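User: Please fill in residues for this 416-position structure.
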């Protein structure tokens, strides 16, 4: 789409948040445009055909809190089949790798830990979550590993109040054709300028000036939806500077979570939608989804410092670590049965610089600071601004809609 030189509202970023904002504004009569640095829609939602018989979500895959998830209705409207099979991560472990008795012990330890966190949150203690681990509990490293999957970081990096604010309804569904594909379909038909990297938002004059890699345009309002690490690194800048926003974004960094999919020969021997995870007593471990949707593959998931280390080690390191770990659980026969298909590299992705946000200890209040509009002209959305569905795609989408409604409210009150 060609860049017009003047519009009413510019939306920066065509991920779930930007698309949510655009949908809420598209029938308002306002002239809007989405500016997207990539050559595709969806941001951290991205589905690929990793092999002829393997669909892989490189980013988001689960419709978390599905009974409250706005993408479920959108999936139904767009004819995307929603799969309600139970997720593999709690009750569906495979075989003897993590025996039932040990798993029950682990669940008791992690449930007790989250109870202590809940109590601390009630007391308003916004400190690091690791302080509530029971000293010397044998399961502490694995509880920390779960934090790396959920928060993208170890417990010493995340605020208790932030962990407690997240609303998990316990329902987790999937989209057979891919969550990224659903988000892309949701974006169809919207006015998007691709390969348009925004460098500067100049709000020193009455009209906003937006400097991009495709030229400069002016607007009345802007909705910024880029990931926090780009705001914190000032990859996108404001003039005059908005130090409160930069500080808030820095307090809400994106952690690291990475995924890999491995083709599996002779898949029938393993259960469909099973989980493979060992009682390894270490935090640096993967968790594996066996044959998602019955596909002939195993999907690995890595988080926190270990994920960053593997990603820094270069292409293929995540797949190699996955194969080694799976072989250690299932036997050496699996070395020849597994073939790397695709792995993510979100921390090295210039337009994400990480996976999803968490609040640093002492900074749970920064989500509201980041979300607050400035001067009735600059509005902020994106998963990190969601009060209780942060780190998710639906939280991002809903935040975009919220920011669009703020724009409409300002315009309406000015017209009154
Ligand atoms: C490995 C992984 C697994 C995940 N699993 C799940 C899951 O199972 N369920 C779930 O709900 N969520 C999951 N998430 C999180 C979810 O994907 C994100 O929270 C959500 O997609 C974020 O949407 P957003 O619109 O806030 O940001 P993004 O999707 O990051 O969109 C922001 C857009 O801004 C663009 N942009 C950046 N800088 C500029 C610039 N300067 N100029 C113009 N454009 C710019 C980016 O290219 C991007 O398209 C996962 C994420 C990862 C990485």
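Assistant: Residues filled in for all 416 positions:
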């Amino acid at each position: 789409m060609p860049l017009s030189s003047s519009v009413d509202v510019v939306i920066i970023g065509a991920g779930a948040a930007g698309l949510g904002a655009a949908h809420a504004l598209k029938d308002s009569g306002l002239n809007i445009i989405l500016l997207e640095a990539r050559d595709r829609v969806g941001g951290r939602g991205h589905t690929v055909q990793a092999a002829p018989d393997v669909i892989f979500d490189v980013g988001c895959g689960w419709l978390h809190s599905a009974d409250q998830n706005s993408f479920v209705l959108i999936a139904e409207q767009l004819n995307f089949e929603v799969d309600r099979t139970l997720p593999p991560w709690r009750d569906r472990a495979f075989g003897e790798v993590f025996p039932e008795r040990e798993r029950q012990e682990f669940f008791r330890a992690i449930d007790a830990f989250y109870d202590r966190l809940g109590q601390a949150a009630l007391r308003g203690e916004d400190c690091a979550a690791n302080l509530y681990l029971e000293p010397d509990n044998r399961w502490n490293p694995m509880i920390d590993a779960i934090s790396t999957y959920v928060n993208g970081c170890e417990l010493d990096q995340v605020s208790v109040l932030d962990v407690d604010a997240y609303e998990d309804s316990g329902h987790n569904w999937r989209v057979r054709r891919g969550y990224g594909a659903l988000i892309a379909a949701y974006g169809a038909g919207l006015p998007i300028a691709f390969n348009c990297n925004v460098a500067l938002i100049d709000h020193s004059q009455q009209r906003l000036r937006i400097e991009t890699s495709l030229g400069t345009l002016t607007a009345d309002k802007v909705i910024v939806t880029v990931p926090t690490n780009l705001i914190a690194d000032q990859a996108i800048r404001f003039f005059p500077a908005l130090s409160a926003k930069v500080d808030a974004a820095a307090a809400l960094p994106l952690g690291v979570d990475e995924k890999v999919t491995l083709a599996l020969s002779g898949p029938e021997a393993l259960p469909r939608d099973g989980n493979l995870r060992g009682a390894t007593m270490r935090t640096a471990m993967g968790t594996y989804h066996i044959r998602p949707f019955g596909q002939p593959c195993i999907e690995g998931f890595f988080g926190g410092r270990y994920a960053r280390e593997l990603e820094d080690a270069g292409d293929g390191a995540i797949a190699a670590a996955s194969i080694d770990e799976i072989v250690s659980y299932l036997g050496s026969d699996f070395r020849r049965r597994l073939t790397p298909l695709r792995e993510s590299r979100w921390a090295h992705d210039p337009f994400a610089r990480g996976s999803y946000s968490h609040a640093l200890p002492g900074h749970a209040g920064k989500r509201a600071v980041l979300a607050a509009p400035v001067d009735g002209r600059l509005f902020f959305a994106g998963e990190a601004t969601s009060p209780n569905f942060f780190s998710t795609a639906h939280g991002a989408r809903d935040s975009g809609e919220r920011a669009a409604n703020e724009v409409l409210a300002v315009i309406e009150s000015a017209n009154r």
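For context: The radius of gyration is 22 Å.
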